Amino acid sequence: MSLKTTFFLLAFLLPVLSFAQGVRGIIVDETGDPLPMVSIYMPSEQVGTTTNLEGQYEISLEPGEYKLVFRSLGFKQREFKVTIRKTWIDLDLTLEPQSYQLREVVINPSGEDPAYAIMRKAIGMAPYYLRQTERYNAEVYLKGSFRMNKIPRLLKSQLKISANGTEVPIEEGRTYTMESMNEITFIAPDTFKHTVLASRSSFPAGNESTALGFINSSFYEPDNDMVISPLAPQAMRHYKFRYEGYFDEGNYEINKIKVTPKRKSQQLVTGYVYIVQDLWNLHSVDVEAEMFFGDVKVKQVFQPVQENAWLPVTHQFDLDVSMMGVKAIVDYSGSVKYKEVELNKDLEAPEFLVEEKEEILEEEPSAEAPKSENQKKIDELLSREDLNNREMMRLAKLMEKESDQTEVPESLELTSTYKMDVKKDSVKRDSAYWETMRPVPLTPLEQNSFALGDSLARAAENKNDSTDKKETGLLGEIAGFSAFGKRFYMADSTVTIDYDGLIGLGNVNFNPVDGWSYKQSLRLKWRQDSVHQMIFKPEAAWAFSREALMWNASLSQTYAPIQRGYLEISAGDESTDFKPGRVDVAPFADMVASLFFKENYKRYFDHRFSRVSNGIDLSNGLRWDLSATYEQMKPVQNNTAYSFFDKEEDFYPNIPGNPILEASHLMAQNSLSWRTGITYTPRYFYRIRNGRKIMAHSDYPTFSLAMEHGLSAFDSDADYLLVEGSVKQEKEAGFFPALSWEAGGGWFARNEQMHFSRFKHFNGSAIPVRLTGGPSFRLLDDYASSTNEWYVTGDLEYSSPYLLLKNLPVLSNRLWQESLHFNYLYTPQLTHYTQMGYSIDQIFLMGSVGVFAGFENGEYEHWGISAVLEF
């Protein structure tokens, strides 16, 4: 054999030979049954792994001495020291059931379970442990399996996956498996950089990336998107806790706490949390939840990777899907190897953690640094044997406040907190690589899954190579885009044309003024560069009963992308609602009411207009808008009495009902007006996406001030001046209560002549079903409250996942929100009108229904039921 040949053979075999040794075996219980998902941790390497579903494990190691810690919930921990040389060591283990001891406790006079004292300190410490780690770098192995046990006959032809352009059906009973090696870099408070080093999947088209969301989440985080954590500040409102004893593990005592929801809910978990005595951090988690799509089980095992920093080293996530006749099993497991961990040095540790660290280091205590006032209060609370709920909340807030002080002053620019990179050729790793790097052995089913997946991919590729593609004929293509619309690309794709097609619900409308109308529209976009674009949107419709052509067009140009500059020129001639830009009654809802119930809520006028508008940010959070409009307004009348069921009775006349309405407000007239306004939101967070600024959120209210002036110049009949202002704050409802509010007022300094459309109108309608949410007067007639004198208004909405009806056992498992509403309006014609209501929201995630009552001057006026459907 030549020297050159020998060199290349050694280069090829070196990655395999260098790890052709380690430790492996099978772990069983006392009856001999394999134990799946046993945590195996090596403190010196800061790496964790698990057994597979058959209790097998296999760890490739370089020669040397290692300490192995075997832990499974419900079993006694075992530790072994092994010396690895040049061969595999077979180490089979039997784990004994964990016995729990009951600690002598002082009985609380109220008879409260000892678990509550433990959980209050754990909840109080949660903000500290959430922020304890400043940065880490870790290798994460993730393996997932998916098996469809039952597919309804109607869905069998629909459930397919794409393999090289060919649709491959998902088969019942077949196991699909994926695995990946990943590098995760975490930087506090919430930035993750995810690099896929290698990935492989039995799905023919599933090799690109993997999901690590459940590994990156934390039970210390109070705002978990899926469930309310047992360590959340409000946990005492939602959970019951029971102390089930403790066990010794090395130098630590571990408390076993049973977690039970106080009510049945998809947002609450049941199971066990294990808390380290005197440290009050998580040792492990074993919980499950019943979701609308099936049962979810989550297990996490923590280990002290540095001083008193306990981080999760193994994860298990199981999903039993049962929905709409579909039954499936999804299992994910992950093992973590921490290569680098950096603690938050600016975060002052509580006194008991400092003492624990000194005991571990066996050193003399160093000179104490001055403590902050918050830290003194934290130490005083933690020194108490028992905390009540109020003291627990105070401790959690102090911990969060102390932790926030260590963070770098927050920038208003939000950058992506999750970045993903897929290494080149990550899907081309061979079996030798996986045998070396995989910390969890594959089961025979999983091995068979990869073999079948590879054969499916080859078969699909061969089928594509041997099958001629059928091309659609020219007439068929023209018919397709004519009917349903299409996007066309011109030049070098910098110009796109979107056509909505001839068929579509949005093309048709009906109201008593126009009768049936049919609309066609285009949208032409010219991308001048990555941050500038021009959009032209023409639209034309024919009103059959009025026998009139209606049209509008707009031309807009973006500029100054960081200041969100926007210039638009628009014009049109169409039937327009007297409430300009109203959202309380959508055209489709008004059409349904007219055709099915002979109810016409909207009133229209003939509107010809030309408008120029501009908006730009003067600074972050401070925006200025300016527009000028010339209008010709003429009255129109109903032109049809058609409806589906009552073709004889007429619709209500096309005249808005208002107590101060005069003939001069509806007559034909011209109007030249301008409007300007500024809005300011302090500390408004934003993102820069593709070079353009996009506003995100703020913790502060938004202040607005505007002025509109109708000019009696040229041939304009208008003569009015409106000054108005408002302040509002919106909070999105979630697991925790949210309060949204708005207060505003305005005054017409002049109102000599103005069209009714220029009155101040308020969001509200008596229509029983709306298509948009938001604060509104749901019992007032559409135009009765409009004014041209002055007004004061206020809105308040309080939302909570548990408020009234959801406390009932029969409703507690619903993913609904409950809201209380309060609306106030004061005008010269409508004095001290208040509306109060209660609603259930997010029904099927898209609707709400509520009951409301209206009062004027404190006296009852009316009540009604209102529903919202948001598609």
From TrEMBL:
InterPro entries: CarboxyPept-like_regulatory, DUF5686. Transmembrane segments: none annotated. Keywords: Signal. The keyword Ribosomal protein does not apply. Residues 1-20 form the signal peptide. The keyword Signal applies. Pfam families: CarbopepD_reg_2, DUF5686. SUPFAM superfamilies: Carboxypeptidase regulatory domain-like. This is Carboxypeptidase-like regulatory domain-containing protein. It comes from Marinilabilia rubra.
